[in-house]
Design goal:
The N terminus and C terminus are likely disordered. A hairpin with a 5-residue loop joins strand 9 and strand 10. By secondary structure, the chain is α/β, with parallel strands linked by helices. The chain has six helices and eleven strands. It has a single domain, classed as 3-Layer(aba) Sandwich (Collagenase (Catalytic Domain)), CATH 3.40.390.10. The strands form two sheets. Strands 1, 3, 4, 5, 6, 7, 8, 9 and 10 form a nine-stranded mixed sheet that branches. A two-stranded antiparallel ribbon has the order 2-11. The protein is 18% helix and 19% strand. Helix 2 packs parallel to helix 3.
């Protein structure tokens, strides 16, 4: 099928689960709404590693799995700096590749290897991203899915016939399928689907380094807080790259000081957020994944 045909089949994400329902691979949250969940309902870092994802059932749609190790690396995003931020990539119209703000972006947590306070830190980090973007990010429960490199964006046996939710997990460098180096705090990998030049993020994963016992729960200081790392990685997940500015949370290195979004961070999150309207999302379907040879040496 031609690229024009691939564009023509792009539409809504397809039938969404009824409110409160989940795919077979998730455990529901039984704790009730709570302040973090109410806030959520209101609503990886340079050198991306590209992966082509071809939709088997008909249209060949190009997807990229971007991967960034962060924030203990010395590389800065290739995209030009604009108003204090960088983005993973842009579509042909010049706008950043981003999630559809008119669709729910479901998130699941794999609790194995997670440190104390991980869920609370994730909820708070999601709330801050929601507030800055207007995206409808929702933590819907837990999963036993392990990380994988690359992670398939369509897993009907685990999550039903839809794009898989965003996976947040802790793992150890060197374990099978774990895209982490020893020095990394984490890696974020958003997955963009669609024809070349007109892509939309549909899922992704955030893998945190379970061996980093120098980090502590909460949002106390950028230098040693898991909350700061989660916020940094989730900003990568929704489309932002690194900047060479220590006053921004998206600085290449962790830095120190209060865990707050800087003006460039906020401008970037607004640029990939809800103010720019809905995006057409190709229907979910079976995929085959291959990694282009030219991308293999660009791990962040």
């Amino acid at each position: 099928m031609s690229e024009a045909d691939a564009r023509s089949v792009a539409g809504s994400l397809g039938p969404r689960p009824e409110p409160g329902s989940r795919g077979p691979g998730t455990e529901p949250d039984s704790r009730g709404p709570g302040p973090h969940r109410s806030a959520l309902r209101r609503t990886l870092l340079t050198g991306a590693v590209a992966v082509l994802v071809l939709l088997v059932a008909g249209a060949a749609l190009v997807a990229t799995v971007a991967q960034r190790a962060a924030p203990d690396t010395a590389m800065v995003a290739d995209a030009p700096l604009a108003e204090g931020y960088t983005v993973w990539e842009r579509n042909d119209d010049g706008t950043p590749v981003r999630f559809d703000p008119c669709s729910v972006i479901e998130v699941v947590l794999a609790p194995r290897h997670a440190p104390p306070g991980a869920r609370a830190d994730l909820e708070e980090a999601l709330t801050r991203i929601v507030d800055a973007t207007g995206l409808d990010l929702r933590l819907i429960g837990s999963t036993d899915e392990p990380p994988s490199d690359p992670r398939l964006p369509y897993q009907p046996e685990r999550y039903g016939e839809r794009w898989a939710p965003v996976l947040v997990t802790w793992a150890r460098p060197g374990d099978p399928g774990v895209p982490l180096r020893v020095i990394d705090r984490g890696v974020a990998s958003p997955v963009a689907v669609g024809p070349e030049g007109d892509r939309t993020y549909v899922t992704g994963q955030v893998v945190l380094n379970a061996d980093r016992d120098d980090l502590r729960p909460g949002f106390g200081d950028r230098s040693d807080a898991w909350g700061a790392t989660l916020l940094h990685e989730l900003a990568h997940l929704v489309g932002l790259g690194h900047v060479d500015d220590p006053t921004e949370l998206m600085y290449t290195f962790p830095g120190d000081g209060e865990v707050v979004l800087g003006p460039g961070d906020r401008a970037g999150l607004a640029a990939v957020g809800a103010d720019h309207g809905c995006r057409d999302v190709p229907p979910a379907g079976p995929v085959a994944v291959r990694r282009p040879a030219e991308a293999r040496d660009h791990h962040g």
